[in-house]
């Protein structure tokens, strides 16, 4: 029976020692755990800041792309107009002014009247 009591005493002593070692380990690791939690909090804050910056940069990039597209469209419109200018200018040079046409018409009328007078017998 003594062996049973000694066994129970050894089990109780080992459980007490296990509790003591666990408590001691917990006490020693508590500052490390707190330090890790503080580090995790700082990393999370920095991650949130980086995410906000990323969102802001994405917004600014979209704004710049929209502005770029507007300006590109405006420049392309101007370039197209400039490319069409020689055609319009060329057509303007080819077209005769109304005054020149009127002069030719009057000259033909005068020549026709003159021919008619000389062709009539007297």
Q: Could you describe the 3D structure shown?
A:
By secondary structure, this protein is mostly helical. The chain has a domain at 2-86. It has helices spanning 2-94, 98-119. The protein is rod-shaped and about 175 Å long.
| H-E order | HH
What's the count of strands?
Answer: 0
Rg estimate, integer Å? 52 Å
Count of separate DSSP helical elements: 2
The secondary structure category is: mainly alpha
**How far apart lie the N and C ends?**
176 Å
Question: Mean of the pLDDT scores?
Answer: 88
Helix content: over 70%
Question: Which helices and strands occur, and which strands form pairs?
Answer:
Blueprint: H1 2-94, H2 98-119
For the structure shown, list the relevant keywords:
122 residues, mainly alpha, 94% helix, 0% strand
Compact summary:
By secondary structure, the chain is an all-alpha fold. It has a domain at 2-86.
């Amino acid at each position: 029976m003594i062996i049973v009591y000694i066994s129970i005493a050894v089990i109780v002593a080992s459980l007490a020692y296990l509790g003591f070692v666990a408590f001691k380990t917990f006490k020693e690791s508590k500052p490390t755990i707190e330090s890790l939690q503080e580090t995790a909090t700082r990393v999370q804050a920095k991650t949130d800041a980086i995410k906000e910056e990323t969102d802001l940069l994405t917004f600014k990039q979209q704004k710049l792309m929209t502005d770029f597209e507007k300006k590109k469209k405006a420049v392309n419109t101007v370039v197209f107009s400039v490319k069409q200018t020689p055609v319009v200018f060329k057509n303007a040079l080819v077209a005769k002014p109304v005054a020149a046409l009127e002069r030719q018409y009057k000259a033909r009328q005068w020549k026709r009247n003159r021919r008619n007078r000389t062709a009539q017998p007297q």
